[in-house]
From TrEMBL:
<keyword id="KW-0472">Membrane</keyword>
<dbReference type="InterPro" id="IPR002429">
    <property type="entry name" value="CcO_II-like_C"/>
</dbReference>
<dbReference type="GO" id="GO:0005507">
    <property type="term" value="F:copper ion binding"/>
</dbReference>
<dbReference type="InterPro" id="IPR034214">
    <property type="entry name" value="Ba3_CcO_II_C"/>
</dbReference>
<protein>
    <recommendedName>
        <fullName>Cytochrome aa3 subunit 2</fullName>
    </recommendedName>
</protein>
<dbReference type="GO" id="GO:0030313">
    <property type="term" value="C:cell envelope"/>
</dbReference>
<comment type="function">
    <text>Subunits I and II form the functional core of the enzyme complex. Electrons originating in cytochrome c are transferred via heme a and Cu(A) to the binuclear center formed by heme a3 and Cu(B).</text>
</comment>
<dbReference type="InterPro" id="IPR051403">
    <property type="entry name" value="NosZ/Cyto_c_oxidase_sub2"/>
</dbReference>
<dbReference type="GO" id="GO:0004129">
    <property type="term" value="F:cytochrome-c oxidase activity"/>
</dbReference>
<keyword id="KW-0479">Metal-binding</keyword>
<feature type="transmembrane region" description="Helical">
    <location>
        <begin position="9"/>
        <end position="32"/>
    </location>
</feature>
<dbReference type="Pfam" id="PF00116">
    <property type="entry name" value="COX2"/>
</dbReference>
<feature type="domain" description="Cytochrome oxidase subunit II copper A binding">
    <location>
        <begin position="50"/>
        <end position="156"/>
    </location>
</feature>
<dbReference type="InterPro" id="IPR008972">
    <property type="entry name" value="Cupredoxin"/>
</dbReference>
<keyword id="KW-0812">Transmembrane</keyword>
<keyword id="KW-1133">Transmembrane helix</keyword>
<keyword id="KW-0186">Copper</keyword>
Length: 156
């Protein structure tokens, strides 16, 4: 009788530990569910980029005397808007995201070089002092036509 009661206590203790253990796993799984890997505060579903402001209307907007905001999207295999034109000396604040896979955004001859992740918004500011045609290249392998993925920024 004595031993039997002790066993009962131990079994009860074991069951209690199991319940605690399972609820800890459950809580962690729930917490992870609340914060999925893409759940960065800037994140969005890449498929919804086209319908999410400001990326529903990619374009160049003047925000200061010679200061612009360029809202851009990258996709296989190009950028929108294509071939932007700005005055010499313009400071451009790029805001860019990808509609599909990882792309790059590099302007050779400048320090502009960033990764463009699907659904993640990336920012970079650059002042284009010298007039000319600046090539914008994708430097992340993104598929068959990766090598031809480019646009230009014309500074005059
Ligand atoms: Cu886009 Cu390589």
């Amino acid at each position: 009788m004595h031993i039997h009661r002790l066993e009962k206590i131990w079994i009860g203790f074991g069951v209690a530990m199991l319940v605690v253990f399972l609820s800890v796993i459950g809580i962690s799984a729930f917490a992870m569910g609340m914060d999925p890997p893409t759940g960065h505060s800037h994140g969005m579903d890449p498929a919804k980029v086209d319908s999410t402001a400001p990326f529903d209307k990619p374009g160049l907007k003047q925000v200061g005397e010679n200061e612009y905001e360029a809202v851009m999207t990258a996709f296989a295999f190009g950028y929108a808007p294509d071939n932007m034109e700005i005055p010499a000396g313009a400071t451009v604040h790029f805001t860019i995201t990808s509609k599909d896979v990882i792309h790059g955004f590099q302007i050779p001859g400048t320090n502009v070089n960033m990764m463009v992740l699907p659904g993640e918004i990336n920012h970079l500011t650059h002042t284009f002092d010298k007039p000319g045609t600046y090539l914008v290249l994708c430097n992340e392998y993104c598929g068959g036509a990766h090598e031809w993925m480019k646009t230009t920024i014309i500074v005059k």
